[in-house]
Amino acid sequence: MLLYRSAAWFAKGLREYTKSGYESASKDFVPDDLEVQVPGRAFMVTGGNSGIGKATAMEIAKRGGTVHLVCRDHSRAEGAKAEIIRESGNQNIFLHIVDLSLPKSVWKFVENFKQEHTLNVLINNAGCMVNKRELTEDGLEKNFATNTLGVYVLTTALIPVLEKEHDPRVITVSSGGMLVQKLNTDDPQSERTAFDGTMVYAQNKRQQVVLTERWARAHPAVHFSCMHPGWVDTPGVRLSMPGFHARLGARLRSEAQGADTVLWLALAPAATAQPSGCFFQDRKPVPTHLPLARTSSSPAEEEKLIEILEELARRFK
Ligand SMILES: NC(=O)c1ccc[n+]([C@@H]2O[C@H](COP(=O)([O-])OP(=O)(O)OC[C@H]3O[C@@H](n4cnc5c(N)ncnc54)[C@H](O)[C@@H]3O)[C@@H](O)[C@H]2O)c1
Q1: Helix crossing, 197-218 with 151-163: angle to 10°?
Q2: Which protein residue's CA is at the shortest distance from atom 18 of ligand 1?
Protein backbone atom coordinates (compact mmCIF):
# COMPACT_ATOMS: atom_id res chain seq x y z
CA MET A 1 0.00 0.00 0.00
CA LEU A 2 2.82 2.42 0.88
CA LEU A 3 4.38 1.74 -2.52
CA TYR A 4 1.09 2.57 -4.30
CA ARG A 5 0.61 5.72 -2.22
CA SER A 6 4.19 6.90 -2.82
CA ALA A 7 4.01 6.27 -6.60
CA ALA A 8 0.60 8.00 -6.91
CA TRP A 9 1.87 10.91 -4.81
CA PHE A 10 5.11 11.35 -6.79
CA ALA A 11 3.25 11.32 -10.12
CA LYS A 12 0.83 13.93 -8.74
CA GLY A 13 3.77 15.95 -7.45
CA LEU A 14 5.49 16.08 -10.83
CA ARG A 15 2.27 17.45 -12.34
CA GLU A 16 1.21 19.81 -9.56
CA TYR A 17 3.92 20.54 -6.96
CA THR A 18 6.64 21.74 -9.32
CA LYS A 19 7.28 25.22 -10.73
CA SER A 20 5.26 24.38 -13.85
CA GLY A 21 2.42 23.13 -11.60
CA TYR A 22 2.45 26.53 -9.90
CA GLU A 23 2.54 28.43 -13.20
CA SER A 24 -0.42 26.46 -14.48
CA ALA A 25 -2.46 26.82 -11.22
CA SER A 26 -1.68 30.53 -10.94
CA LYS A 27 -3.59 31.24 -14.18
CA ASP A 28 -6.74 30.90 -12.04
CA PHE A 29 -5.55 33.25 -9.28
CA VAL A 30 -7.37 36.55 -8.72
CA PRO A 31 -4.41 38.98 -8.78
CA ASP A 32 -6.19 41.56 -6.60
CA ASP A 33 -6.54 39.05 -3.75
CA LEU A 34 -3.11 39.99 -2.43
CA GLU A 35 -3.44 43.72 -3.16
CA VAL A 36 -4.08 44.44 0.51
CA GLN A 37 -2.48 46.60 3.16
CA VAL A 38 -2.56 45.32 6.73
CA PRO A 39 -1.24 48.02 9.10
CA GLY A 40 -2.45 47.38 12.63
CA ARG A 41 -2.71 43.61 12.13
CA ALA A 42 -0.17 41.36 13.84
CA PHE A 43 1.24 38.18 12.31
CA MET A 44 3.43 35.55 13.95
CA VAL A 45 5.61 33.55 11.57
CA THR A 46 7.50 30.61 13.07
CA GLY A 47 10.76 29.82 11.27
CA GLY A 48 10.49 33.27 9.69
CA ASN A 49 14.25 33.58 9.13
CA SER A 50 14.54 31.06 6.28
CA GLY A 51 12.89 29.69 3.13
CA ILE A 52 9.10 29.91 2.86
CA GLY A 53 8.78 31.56 6.29
CA LYS A 54 11.13 34.40 5.41
CA ALA A 55 9.43 35.01 2.05
CA THR A 56 6.09 35.12 3.91
CA ALA A 57 7.34 37.50 6.61
CA MET A 58 8.85 39.82 3.98
CA GLU A 59 5.59 40.14 2.01
CA ILE A 60 3.53 40.77 5.16
CA ALA A 61 6.04 43.44 6.23
CA LYS A 62 5.78 45.10 2.81
CA ARG A 63 2.01 45.32 3.32
CA GLY A 64 2.46 47.14 6.65
CA GLY A 65 1.66 44.29 9.04
CA THR A 66 3.38 43.88 12.40
CA VAL A 67 5.51 40.74 12.16
CA HIS A 68 6.62 38.52 15.03
CA LEU A 69 9.41 36.23 13.89
CA VAL A 70 9.69 33.15 16.10
CA CYS A 71 13.10 31.61 15.49
CA ARG A 72 15.56 29.24 17.09
CA ASP A 73 18.93 30.61 16.06
CA HIS A 74 19.69 34.11 17.31
CA SER A 75 22.35 35.27 14.86
CA ARG A 76 20.61 33.95 11.71
CA ALA A 77 17.32 35.43 12.89
CA GLU A 78 18.86 38.87 13.59
CA GLY A 79 20.16 38.91 10.00
CA ALA A 80 16.72 38.05 8.61
CA LYS A 81 15.02 40.68 10.78
CA ALA A 82 17.46 43.37 9.59
CA GLU A 83 16.92 42.33 5.96
CA ILE A 84 13.12 42.47 6.31
CA ILE A 85 13.26 45.93 7.92
CA ARG A 86 15.67 47.21 5.27
CA GLU A 87 13.74 45.85 2.28
CA SER A 88 10.21 46.59 3.50
CA GLY A 89 10.87 49.86 5.34
CA ASN A 90 8.61 48.45 8.10
CA GLN A 91 10.02 48.94 11.62
CA ASN A 92 7.36 46.81 13.33
CA ILE A 93 9.33 43.58 13.11
CA PHE A 94 9.87 41.74 16.40
CA LEU A 95 12.13 38.79 17.04
CA HIS A 96 11.46 36.07 19.63
CA ILE A 97 13.99 33.31 20.17
CA VAL A 98 12.16 30.07 20.90
CA ASP A 99 12.98 26.43 20.25
CA LEU A 100 9.61 24.98 19.28
CA SER A 101 10.74 21.44 20.07
CA LEU A 102 10.86 22.37 23.79
CA PRO A 103 7.25 22.59 25.00
CA LYS A 104 8.16 24.30 28.30
CA SER A 105 9.85 27.11 26.37
CA VAL A 106 6.83 27.45 24.09
CA TRP A 107 4.40 27.79 27.02
CA LYS A 108 6.70 30.33 28.69
CA PHE A 109 7.10 32.30 25.47
CA VAL A 110 3.32 32.66 25.03
CA GLU A 111 2.88 33.67 28.70
CA ASN A 112 5.31 36.56 28.14
CA PHE A 113 4.12 37.38 24.63
CA LYS A 114 0.51 37.95 25.61
CA GLN A 115 1.47 40.48 28.32
CA GLU A 116 2.87 42.80 25.65
CA HIS A 117 1.34 41.97 22.27
CA THR A 118 -1.85 41.15 20.42
CA LEU A 119 -2.09 38.69 17.54
CA ASN A 120 -4.40 38.36 14.52
CA VAL A 121 -2.70 35.62 12.54
CA LEU A 122 -0.50 32.69 13.56
CA ILE A 123 1.53 31.05 10.79
CA ASN A 124 2.91 27.68 11.92
CA ASN A 125 5.65 27.48 9.30
CA ALA A 126 8.68 26.12 11.20
CA GLY A 127 9.35 22.48 10.52
CA CYS A 128 12.12 19.94 10.24
CA MET A 129 12.98 16.58 8.75
CA VAL A 130 15.64 14.99 10.92
CA ASN A 131 16.75 11.81 9.21
CA LYS A 132 18.22 10.00 12.24
CA ARG A 133 16.26 9.39 15.44
CA GLU A 134 17.36 12.22 17.75
CA LEU A 135 15.94 13.18 21.12
CA THR A 136 15.38 16.64 22.55
CA GLU A 137 16.57 17.49 26.06
CA ASP A 138 13.09 16.38 27.24
CA GLY A 139 13.67 12.94 25.67
CA LEU A 140 11.16 13.55 22.86
CA GLU A 141 11.77 12.47 19.25
CA LYS A 142 12.83 15.67 17.47
CA ASN A 143 10.56 15.66 14.40
CA PHE A 144 7.48 14.89 16.47
CA ALA A 145 8.48 17.44 19.14
CA THR A 146 8.89 20.20 16.54
CA ASN A 147 6.32 19.48 13.86
CA THR A 148 3.47 18.14 15.97
CA LEU A 149 3.85 18.85 19.68
CA GLY A 150 5.41 22.31 19.14
CA VAL A 151 2.61 23.29 16.76
CA TYR A 152 0.02 21.90 19.17
CA VAL A 153 1.35 23.75 22.24
CA LEU A 154 1.92 27.06 20.42
CA THR A 155 -1.52 27.03 18.80
CA THR A 156 -3.35 25.88 21.95
CA ALA A 157 -1.66 28.59 24.02
CA LEU A 158 -2.40 31.30 21.44
CA ILE A 159 -6.05 30.48 20.64
CA PRO A 160 -7.37 32.61 23.56
CA VAL A 161 -5.11 35.48 22.39
CA LEU A 162 -6.37 35.18 18.79
CA GLU A 163 -10.02 34.89 19.85
CA LYS A 164 -9.90 38.42 21.28
CA GLU A 165 -9.06 39.96 17.89
CA HIS A 166 -10.83 40.75 14.63
CA ASP A 167 -10.57 38.19 11.79
CA PRO A 168 -8.21 35.77 13.58
CA ARG A 169 -6.55 33.08 11.48
CA VAL A 170 -4.19 30.14 11.95
CA ILE A 171 -2.30 28.74 8.97
CA THR A 172 -0.19 25.62 9.33
CA VAL A 173 2.35 24.80 6.64
CA SER A 174 1.84 21.07 6.29
CA SER A 175 2.97 19.09 3.23
CA GLY A 176 1.53 17.10 0.35
CA GLY A 177 3.85 14.38 1.66
CA MET A 178 1.23 13.68 4.32
CA LEU A 179 -0.90 12.05 1.60
CA VAL A 180 1.22 8.89 1.87
CA GLN A 181 0.46 8.48 5.57
CA LYS A 182 -2.60 7.39 7.52
CA LEU A 183 -2.79 8.86 11.01
CA ASN A 184 -0.88 6.50 13.30
CA THR A 185 -1.04 7.01 17.05
CA ASP A 186 0.47 3.65 18.06
CA ASP A 187 4.07 4.81 18.17
CA PRO A 188 4.14 8.63 17.86
CA GLN A 189 7.79 8.93 18.81
CA SER A 190 9.10 6.03 16.74
CA GLU A 191 10.23 4.06 19.79
CA ARG A 192 9.25 0.64 18.49
CA THR A 193 9.40 0.96 14.68
CA ALA A 194 12.37 1.22 12.32
CA PHE A 195 13.14 4.91 11.87
CA ASP A 196 12.53 6.51 8.48
CA GLY A 197 12.83 10.32 8.78
CA THR A 198 10.86 11.00 5.59
CA MET A 199 7.92 8.89 6.77
CA VAL A 200 8.07 10.31 10.31
CA TYR A 201 7.93 13.81 8.79
CA ALA A 202 5.00 12.79 6.54
CA GLN A 203 3.18 11.35 9.59
CA ASN A 204 3.74 14.63 11.49
CA LYS A 205 2.32 16.55 8.52
CA ARG A 206 -0.74 14.24 8.51
CA GLN A 207 -1.10 14.98 12.24
CA GLN A 208 -1.12 18.72 11.45
CA VAL A 209 -4.00 18.19 9.00
CA VAL A 210 -6.01 16.27 11.60
CA LEU A 211 -5.28 18.96 14.22
CA THR A 212 -6.43 21.69 11.84
CA GLU A 213 -9.74 19.91 11.25
CA ARG A 214 -10.25 19.40 14.99
CA TRP A 215 -9.37 22.99 15.89
CA ALA A 216 -11.77 24.30 13.25
CA ARG A 217 -14.65 22.36 14.82
CA ALA A 218 -13.71 23.31 18.40
CA HIS A 219 -12.96 27.04 17.87
CA PRO A 220 -15.39 28.60 15.40
CA ALA A 221 -14.24 32.16 16.15
CA VAL A 222 -10.86 31.46 14.51
CA HIS A 223 -10.34 30.53 10.84
CA PHE A 224 -7.97 27.54 10.58
CA SER A 225 -6.32 26.19 7.48
CA CYS A 226 -3.33 24.09 6.54
CA MET A 227 -1.59 23.92 3.22
CA HIS A 228 1.02 22.43 0.93
CA PRO A 229 3.51 24.96 -0.51
CA GLY A 230 4.57 22.67 -3.36
CA TRP A 231 8.14 21.42 -3.81
CA VAL A 232 10.22 24.49 -3.01
CA ASP A 233 13.93 25.20 -3.30
CA THR A 234 14.74 26.13 0.31
CA PRO A 235 17.67 25.61 2.71
CA GLY A 236 15.52 22.98 4.46
CA VAL A 237 15.10 20.85 1.32
CA ARG A 238 18.76 21.25 0.37
CA LEU A 239 19.83 20.05 3.83
CA SER A 240 17.31 17.28 4.56
CA MET A 241 16.62 15.92 1.07
CA PRO A 242 19.82 16.47 -0.96
CA GLY A 243 18.98 13.65 -3.42
CA PHE A 244 15.48 14.98 -4.07
CA HIS A 245 16.87 18.51 -4.39
CA ALA A 246 19.44 17.43 -6.97
CA ARG A 247 16.92 15.31 -8.91
CA LEU A 248 14.26 18.03 -9.15
CA GLY A 249 16.72 20.90 -9.64
CA ALA A 250 15.22 23.73 -11.69
CA ARG A 251 11.76 22.15 -11.46
CA LEU A 252 11.50 23.20 -7.81
CA ARG A 253 9.40 26.25 -7.00
CA SER A 254 10.94 29.52 -5.81
CA GLU A 255 10.48 30.52 -2.16
CA ALA A 256 8.05 33.25 -3.28
CA GLN A 257 5.94 30.68 -5.15
CA GLY A 258 5.97 28.42 -2.08
CA ALA A 259 4.85 31.32 0.12
CA ASP A 260 2.02 32.40 -2.19
CA THR A 261 -0.77 30.28 -0.66
CA VAL A 262 0.46 30.97 2.88
CA LEU A 263 0.13 34.68 2.13
CA TRP A 264 -3.23 34.25 0.46
CA LEU A 265 -4.56 32.37 3.51
CA ALA A 266 -3.09 34.95 5.89
CA LEU A 267 -4.05 38.11 4.03
CA ALA A 268 -6.79 37.68 1.44
CA PRO A 269 -10.40 38.41 2.39
CA ALA A 270 -11.33 35.63 -0.07
CA ALA A 271 -9.57 33.01 2.09
CA THR A 272 -12.03 33.23 4.97
CA ALA A 273 -14.93 32.80 2.54
CA GLN A 274 -13.75 29.17 2.47
CA PRO A 275 -14.79 26.88 5.34
CA SER A 276 -12.45 26.65 8.32
CA GLY A 277 -10.33 23.48 8.63
CA CYS A 278 -9.42 22.83 4.98
CA PHE A 279 -6.14 21.79 3.34
CA PHE A 280 -5.04 24.14 0.52
CA GLN A 281 -2.81 23.92 -2.50
CA ASP A 282 -2.39 26.89 -4.82
CA ARG A 283 -5.19 28.93 -3.21
CA LYS A 284 -7.75 26.10 -3.45
CA PRO A 285 -9.03 23.62 -0.88
CA VAL A 286 -8.00 20.12 -2.02
CA PRO A 287 -8.70 16.56 -0.79
CA THR A 288 -6.68 15.29 2.16
CA HIS A 289 -6.56 11.72 0.82
CA LEU A 290 -5.37 10.14 -2.42
CA PRO A 291 -7.97 7.99 -4.20
CA LEU A 292 -8.02 4.36 -2.93
CA ALA A 293 -5.17 5.07 -0.50
CA ARG A 294 -7.09 4.08 2.67
CA THR A 295 -5.59 6.89 4.74
CA SER A 296 -8.80 8.06 6.47
CA SER A 297 -8.82 7.86 10.25
CA SER A 298 -11.66 7.24 12.68
CA PRO A 299 -12.85 9.78 15.28
CA ALA A 300 -11.44 7.44 17.96
CA GLU A 301 -7.96 7.50 16.35
CA GLU A 302 -8.10 11.28 16.11
CA GLU A 303 -9.20 11.54 19.73
CA LYS A 304 -6.21 9.39 20.70
CA LEU A 305 -3.86 11.89 19.00
CA ILE A 306 -5.37 14.72 21.05
CA GLU A 307 -5.05 12.69 24.26
CA ILE A 308 -1.36 11.99 23.56
CA LEU A 309 -0.65 15.66 22.80
CA GLU A 310 -2.66 16.94 25.78
CA GLU A 311 -0.80 14.62 28.13
CA LEU A 312 2.61 15.76 26.83
CA ALA A 313 1.56 19.41 26.70
CA ARG A 314 0.52 19.25 30.37
CA ARG A 315 3.58 17.24 31.41
CA PHE A 316 5.92 19.90 30.01
CA LYS A 317 3.98 22.99 31.08
N1 LIG B 1 10.36 23.31 0.84
C2 LIG B 1 9.45 22.41 0.49
O3 LIG B 1 9.47 21.82 -0.60
C4 LIG B 1 8.35 22.08 1.45
C5 LIG B 1 7.35 21.19 1.03
C6 LIG B 1 6.31 20.89 1.90
C7 LIG B 1 6.28 21.48 3.15
N8 LIG B 1 7.28 22.31 3.55
C9 LIG B 1 7.19 22.91 4.90
O10 LIG B 1 7.42 24.29 4.80
C11 LIG B 1 7.88 24.78 6.06
C12 LIG B 1 9.06 25.69 5.84
O13 LIG B 1 10.15 24.89 5.37
P14 LIG B 1 11.27 25.41 4.36
O15 LIG B 1 11.28 24.47 3.23
O16 LIG B 1 11.13 26.87 4.15
O17 LIG B 1 12.58 25.04 5.20
P18 LIG B 1 13.66 25.91 6.01
O19 LIG B 1 14.52 24.90 6.68
O20 LIG B 1 14.29 26.89 5.11
O21 LIG B 1 12.77 26.65 7.08
C22 LIG B 1 12.32 26.00 8.24
C23 LIG B 1 12.40 26.96 9.41
O24 LIG B 1 11.92 26.28 10.58
C25 LIG B 1 12.83 26.59 11.64
N26 LIG B 1 12.80 25.56 12.68
C27 LIG B 1 13.03 24.23 12.55
N28 LIG B 1 12.97 23.65 13.76
C29 LIG B 1 12.70 24.62 14.66
C30 LIG B 1 12.53 24.66 16.07
N31 LIG B 1 12.67 23.56 16.83
N32 LIG B 1 12.23 25.83 16.67
C33 LIG B 1 12.11 26.96 15.94
N34 LIG B 1 12.26 27.00 14.60
C35 LIG B 1 12.56 25.85 13.99
C36 LIG B 1 14.19 26.63 10.96
O37 LIG B 1 15.16 27.26 11.78
C38 LIG B 1 13.83 27.42 9.71
O39 LIG B 1 13.81 28.80 10.02
C40 LIG B 1 8.18 23.55 6.91
O41 LIG B 1 7.12 23.30 7.80
C42 LIG B 1 8.25 22.44 5.87
O43 LIG B 1 7.93 21.19 6.42
C44 LIG B 1 8.30 22.63 2.72
Answers
A1: 20
A2: 236
Q: Distance from the CA of 47 to the center of ligand 1, in angstroms?
A: 6
Residue 306 binned pLDDT confidence (cut-offs 50, 70, 90): very high
Measured in angstroms, how far is the CA atom of residue 52 from the centroid of ligand 1? 7
Rounded distance between C-alpha atoms, residue 18 and residue 314, angstroms: 40
Q: State pTM to two decimals.
A: 0.98
Q: pLDDT, tens digit, for every residue of 32-87?
A: 999 999 999 999 999 999 999 999 999 999 999 999 999 999 999 999 999 999 99
Cβ distance 220 to 276 under 8 Å? yes
Number of domains in the chain: 1
CB atoms within 10 A of CB 284: 14
Q: Which residues of 39-63 are buried (b: 16+ CB within 10 A; e: fewer)?
A: eebbbbbbbbbbbbbbbbbbbbbeb
What is the CATH number for 30?
3.40.50.720
Ligand 1 pocket test: pick from 19, 125, 255 the residue with the most ligand atoms within 8 Å of its Cβ.
125
152 as an active site residue: the answer is no
Percent of the chain with pLDDT over 70: 100
Domain that holds residue 40: 2-315
pLDDT at 2: 84
What's the Cα-to-Cα distance from 196 to each of 7, 129, 188, 191, rounded to whole Å? 17, 10, 13, 12
- The whole-angstrom separation of Cα 228 and Cα 238 is 18
Ligand 1 centroid from CA 190, angstroms: 21
